[in-house]
Amino acid sequence: MSLQEKPVVAVQRCTSYDADTVYSAVCRQFELLGGVESFIQPAQRVLIKPNLIVPRGPEVPAQTHPEVIYAVARIVKEHGAVPLVGDSPAWSNTRGCLKALGIDEQLESLGAEIVQLNQPVRMKIDGAAVGISRVALEADAIINVAKLKAHQQLGATFAFKNMYGCVAGLAGKEKAWWHFARGKEVEPFCRMIIGIYHTLNPVINIIDGIIGMEGQGPINGDPKEVGYLVAGTEPAACERVCCDLVGFDPNDLPLLMTAEKMFPGTLDTPIHVIGDMFNAPVCPDFKPAVQTPLRFSFGHICKSIGKQILILLK
Known about the structure:
By secondary structure, the chain is α/β, with parallel strands linked by helices. Helix content is 34%, strand content 24%. It has one domain (3-313): LarA, N-terminal domain (Rossmann fold, 3-Layer(aba) Sandwich), CATH 3.40.50.11440. The strands form 2 sheets. Strands 1, 2, 3, 4, 7, 8, 9, 10 and 11 form a 9-stranded mixed β-sheet that branches. It has a two-stranded antiparallel ribbon with strand order 5-6. β2, α2 (66-78) and β3 form a beta-alpha-beta unit. 50% of the residues are buried. The model has no long low-confidence stretch (mean pLDDT 94).
């Protein structure tokens, strides 16, 4: 197999969230992968999909760091496209989470649009009628800007899982509903997530691993310095490199195991890593999450919807 046939993943050493440092690091990742023009074109409306889950500040690494979000938005703007920053957070909404990160006004000053991933369009994905946000479906391109985190139900959340945030409906709680409706077994749930990813087909994944979250992610874990950004067009390859960084076995992650069943060779295909080389694992003591049931109870869903409505009304 030639290098051209291998999935390419760009790895960039970055140990600080200093604005200029992050901007330069993200620019270099685009350059390594062929340049920004390989992914977006002038006048396109480009959805930047960060991991926004709960309105907490950047000192809590539950969300994509604001400097990474801003750097991507700035690069999109500089190349003549229109940056849209959006998600459907479990708690609050896009604006509320960006405000907690201290970046909402900065993004709007840049000319970015803050959007809520709502207006569900029912699409058949692996037998499930999933409500995918019309906003995401109508974007000309999507940049998946994920966070490197341990996850208490799926082992880890890298590239695939972040696109689950494009599921809309039920006051932001349709994602929780699918934990109930499809979460009895792990593989059907993972097939749905992978199907959502490929339906939306981001042009590039950029994973914020400068400070990751170890332990009980995706919300209640602890910060852990990893010191890298990971980028590429192939999500499974990006996930495998993230595993190398933190010492996780890809065979232990349900999403990657399911991807292997759906696309044989996913876990065996050699990866062409470019950029800053590293000796794996960078963080051999990165703590995994204690796993909890994937399936939510119906009572949990109802309580969660009620709490979300109260938050939004406030």
